[in-house]
Amino acid sequence: MPHEPVRSIVIVGGGTAGWMAATYLARRLAHLNLSITVVDSAAIGTVGVGEATVPAIRDFLSAIELGEADVLRETGGTIKYGIRFDGWGGEGHRFFHPFGLYGVGAEGVAFHQYWLRLNALGKAGPLADYCLATQLARNGLFLPPVDRPANDIGVFNFALHFDAAAFAALLRRLALANRVAHVDGRIVSVATDQPRSHVTQVTLEDGRTIAGDLWIDASGFRSLLLGEALGVPYVDWRHWLPCDRAVAIPCGATPGDPTPYTVATAHKAGWQWRIPLRHRIGNGSVYCSSFQSDADAEDALLGTLEGAPLADPNRLRFVTGHRTRFWSGNVVGLGLASGFLEPLESTSISLIQSGLERFVALFPDRDCDPRLAATYNRQSVLEFERLRDFLFLHYLANGRDEPFWQAIRAVEPPAPLQIKLDAWRSGGEFVRNEWDTFQDPSWLSLYAGFGDLPDRHSPLADAIGEDALVDSFGRMRAAIARTLSHAEPHGAFLARVAGA
How many CB atoms lie within 10 A of CB 498? Predict the structure, then answer.
């Protein structure tokens, strides 16, 4: 007997996660005879402070057939080539995590091994000099990536900054145009088939009921379906990522072109973000409540604003970690309903995106074979763990003197991170794991940025003579300079494509 196909999907919660799910599923499952309904309440606010992304957002926009220029125009968006980290190694310390490669390798040996060799001789120059994305960011320029770059110097990408609420509104319009139904109402009860761990229907405050075959829990930190109704436990990662509070306050934009990068500035008990949009600057402080009070964090943030505040402080409390199961029965959690990793590397939206991609790849019949869910959960947990390790490295490698930073330096790394650190420190080798979001260049930017360099370079990098190597490095810097001459100012690009 054939399995009964899914006929209805109900998405609980609007906001970024809910409307990303609606637009993506409406496009990817358009060939199936099913209905998609979003249930949310205008009376319930959304977190809506996430304004920065990683380059994967471009793949998502392509999948839902939404133009990047449209997003920039409708959301006050800007370009992002990476993140500048200020003060993490101590006051005055700074480095950049770019969305691009470093230099060009030779004879089967990675570029960074040659850089380590010359750096030990004092002849390499900063690693950042060999990354086009970093130089575009530093110079406030925009250049679109080419499909077939001549060599690795031309391999780079970009992401977007945008107003999260405006982005969700744009997705909402697109979803409704693609026949997604929208129900405005507050859910007061959830009916379940507990033996199967299935949600069957929800009841709204006005008495209406909504049934569905598959459910997407995009209800935010409340986790109405996955956490409350199905009782899926939560894994607490505050041991490694102890920040548990955030306060966000947008302010007026400053004169001049917006910078094409995010800034993350360390402070006494966490860090502060700066995200430039065309019409405002997004500001927020992420901190550990054991080392800083809410009032002190808010006052400190207000004291750094570059313009007049545009809204009251948005205060958030959270626990870093994830649900033990991201998919349980016929419910898949997305966004905050499934877990939370602090926004240090702007991964919240990309986690929603990857969750949707996995869900569609494993799309079930109505019975929801638990083996599909097991595969989905294994992949989701691995993705979260890999990101946890990358984020924790920012804290572990810090060079600050405050009690918060001293305490976190004493925390033992997770075993997979220690394996990566050992391979790097012993010989400049990268360990690549399944479901790593950030690849070798990103790890290199952190290692070099914090001055955590290996004891030696690979002997394979000695095959090229020193003078020839110095000459090659000079030609790489010259090639980047020539490429920059073809770029345009970031502000001019925004004015041209988005009417800034």
Answer: 19
Of the candidates 82, 102, 113, the residue with the CA atom closest to the CA atom of residue 153: 102
Tokens representing 477?
């810097």
What does pLDDT average to over the chain? Answer: 96
The torsion angles phi and psi of 210, rounded to 5 degrees, stand at -130, 125
**Three-state SS string across 103-170, please?**
CCCECCECHHHHHHHHHHCCCCCCHHHHCHHHHHHHCCEECCCCCCCCCHHHCECCEEECCHHHHHHH
Q: Quick check: 188 and 204 in contact, CB under 8 A?
A: yes
Q: What are phi and psi of 449, to 5 degrees?
A: -60, -35
Q: Are 256 and 321 in contact (CB under 8 A)?
A: no
Q: C-alpha 454: how far from its chain's center?
A: 28
What is the per-residue pLDDT for 48?
54
Model confidence pLDDT, tens digit, residues 284-298: 999 999 999 999 999
Pairing of β 209-211 and β 198-204 = antiparallel
Tell me, letter by letter, the H, E, C secondary structure of 417-475. HHHHHHHHHHHCCCCCCCCCCCCHHHHHHHHHHCCCCCCCCCHHHHCCCHHHHHHHHHH
With contact defined as beta carbons under 8 Å apart, do 104 and 151 qualify? yes
| C-alpha distance from residue 97 to each of 83, 178, 306, 416, 450 (Å) | 5, 37, 24, 21, 11
Using DSSP, state whether 98 is helix, strand or coil: strand
- 100 φ/ψ angles, rounded to the nearest 5 degrees: -175, 170
Compute the distance between CA of residue 291 and CA of residue 445 in angstroms, rounded to an integer: 28
What b/e string do you get for 116-137 counting C-beta neighbours within 10 Å, with b at 16 or more? Answer: bbbbeeeebeebbbbbbbbbbb
pTM score, two decimals?
Answer: 0.96
Task: State the residue for tokens 């409350």.
Answer: 228
Encode pLDDT of 458-495 as tens digits. 999 999 999 999 999 999 999 999 999 999 999 999 99
Measured CA to CA in angstroms, residue 382 lies from 378, 416, 431 at distances of 6, 11, 15
Q: For the packed helices 440-449 and 415-427, what is the interaxial angle rounded to 10 degrees? A: 70
Contacts of 177 by beta carbon, 8 Å cutoff, 6+ apart: none
Strand partners, 40: 184
Which residues, other chains included, contact 74 with Cβ-Cβ below 8 Å and sequence gap of 6+?
166, 167, 170
CA distance 341 to 363: 26
Strand order in the sheet with 187-193: 187-193, 198-204, 209-211
Considering the candidates 80, 123, 268, 420, report the single residue annotated as catalytic.
Answer: 80
Is residue 80 part of the annotated active site? The answer reads: yes
**What is the predicted pLDDT for the residue at 382?**
98
Radius of gyration of the chain (CA): 23
